[in-house]
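MODEL INPUT / OUTPUT PAIR
PAIR INDEX: 1
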Amino acid sequence: MHGQIQDLSEHRIGSAVFGKPQDYSVVEDSSVRVHVRQLRLQVHEYFDGEGREETAIVEIPKGAYTRSFAPPSNGLSRFPYLRPRVRT
């Protein structure tokens, strides 16, 4: 999968990383989505804590399987989809 970042998909990751058969169904097997969500949360926790002073932030945008880089924020979480919801 090296050098083919534009071609990353749930199905390709499942086959290449997790050894799923080429004909497996992403509708019936959500393991890739689950693992990417866990990874996204771990990345978020790192950059909101220990990695707060890093010069660049690595993100895995929701709904994507590729990473992106962003400048550090002003202390607010750069992951709006992971921020706690405020109840009024």
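PAIR INDEX: 2
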Amino acid sequence: MVVAQYRLMTEGLWLRHLRLVLGNSMGGMHTWIWGTKYPDFMDALVPMASQPTEMSSRNWMMRRLIIDSIRNDPDWNNGTAQPRSARVASVFYGIATAGGTLALQKMAPTREAADKLLDARLAAPFPLDANDVLYMWDASRDYNPAPALERIQAAVLAINSADDERNPPETGIMERELKRVKNARLFLIPGSEDTGGHLTTSMAKFWKQPVQELLSTAPRGK
């Protein structure tokens, strides 16, 4: 997908250099790939809600559960039907890996409130095709920018939240891998009732200032 984005920039828009590549979640993963695959194409990188290592641990196991729940559902019928498992698995994944522990506790402090929240999510419109859902999650299985991190030339501001369920900071992975990038730092947003776990970085109020500072200090390329 990053190759397609690069071709759009260079062949469709005729751009030869970018000031900034910024992405969130899957876009954050793309940002790491941009930096390793096209190291001279941008001045700065801001990967958010992501880590520069291969898909692993809970993050991959939860994705596998979505994939397997669809493939193993008889109602999927080898891709010719739309099983309810796609909706249920997607809601399960969303609750298990996003939202923030403190924020969810605030929204659903009782069993009744939790049931109401869950019922609303299960009843919400689900326009995605089950095959697209399966492909969307399975496509991340070979993500791994780690072997090429030393190739990154741009200034890197990695932004994650302390309550990110998919990229938990307590593993120390981010700090370890950023040491391999010559001009990189981590901005970690503290978790609170106002953050949303993996969804925190979708709210610019938490990170706009450090990004502005990065853009004002990162050297400009040609």
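PAIR 2 NOTE: The chain has a mean pLDDT of 96.
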